[in-house]
Specification:
By secondary structure, the protein is α/β, with parallel strands linked by helices. About 35% of the residues lie in helices and about 20% in strands. It has helices at about 35-50, 50-60, 80-90, 100-115, 155-165, 195-210, 220-230, 250-265, 270-280, and strands spanning about 70-75, 95-100, 120-125, 140-145, 165-180, 230-245, 300-310. It starts with about 35 loop residues before the first helix and ends with a strand.
């Protein structure tokens, strides 16, 4: 564990590197990443999605009959953008950023100090599910696009249920809608490029799930999974990120980066025409490329599933 998109390590959504999410690093692969270079990028990506996450957190805070939130766990916190938002939305709570990557936890702690919430902010280096017993009790467990990177999702949810105080809530950020950044017909290549990228990403995601340690297949009926581990489903909502054209420089940099990752990860699984289109989109000198297009935008939705311990 340790997205992408964003959040997260929360970003993002399945994999892609799935457009938008940060890679979720496991103990066996963190050496493959240059976290000093990736940390700032992950932080910028999560900041783009911050309005979604803040709206979701305020929805949770406004639920009737919810107990006072005194301790929050942000599972797969990455550089701490969402963890700091949770500290602001729940001003009486200690917030613990949980991640397997020390460099990202250092960024999270520095961000908390910079934003004035450092006194209530803690970090915990942990690899789930192995270290789930070290999490301690919580009133809110936020798992942003991190559960799908754990082989036995049911066992992890059961661990979350055991960590919750009576009345406590699990907020599971899983699912939503695929990211869209370009019109269906962009004036070069075959229309529907992003739909084809979705298909390749879906295949990648399935292989990733199967190859995880202790992987167990689960139907993605989150309410049923909540019930199976003794939690009561408590609502589902989706939150929109809608950045229309023309994009800000930050958002344009983000979509260039996501398409770059797609080209690197999936180039050998796409036909030659689509690869040629990606190369043009990524060419900073091409007037039809992402650096110059006036029709590029950013639109997606993230879904938050809630469950409560009785």
């Amino acid at each position: 564990m340790s997205d992408h998109a964003g959040h997260g390590h929360h970003e993002q959504s399945h994999a892609q590197p799935h457009p938008g999410p940060r890679p979720h690093a496991h103990a066996h692969d963190t050496k493959d990443f240059d976290w000093d270079a990736m940390g700032p990028r992950l932080e910028r990506e999560a900041e783009l999605s911050a309005p979604q996450y803040e709206e979701a957190a305020r929805w949770i805070a406004s639920l009737p009959d919810a107990p006072t939130v005194r301790r929050v766990l942000d599972i797969g916190s990455g550089p701490g953008v969402v963890a700091c938002l949770l500290a602001e939305v729940f001003p009486e709570a200690e917030v613990v950023a949980v991640d397997a990557t020390p460099a990202l936890l250092e960024r999270a702690a520095a961000r908390a100090r910079r934003l004035g919430v450092g006194e209530r902010f803690r970090t915990l280096e942990a690899e789930l599910p192995h270290d789930i017993s070290r999490l301690g009790e919580a009133d809110l467990i936020w798992a942003g696009n991190s559960l799908h990177h754990m082989g036995d999702q049911r066992a992890v949810l059961a661990g979350f249920a055991g960590a919750l105080r009576p009345g406590g809530t699990v907020a599971l950020v899983e699912g939503g809608l695929p990211v869209r950044r370009l019109p269906r017909d962009i004036g070069m290549g075959r229309p529907g490029l992003e739909a084809r990228l979705d298909a390749v990403s879906t295949e990648w995601f399935q292989r990733m799930r199967v190859e995880l340690p202790d992987a167990k297949h689960e139907t993605e009926d989150w309410n049923a999974l909540f019930g199976a581990v003794g939690l009561t489903p408590n609502g589902t909502r989706s939150f929109l990120l809608d950045l229309p054209a023309p994009l800000s420089a930050q958002a344009r940099e983000y979509i260039v980066d996501t398409f770059t990752r797609v080209r690197e990860a999936f180039g050998d699984r796409l036909d030659a025409d689509d690869v040629a289109v990606l190369d043009r989109l990524l060419d900073p000198q091409d007037p039809a490329g992402l650096h110059h297009r006036s029709d590029a935008y950013l639109l997606t939705a993230r879904t938050v599933q809630l469950a409560r311990r009785g």
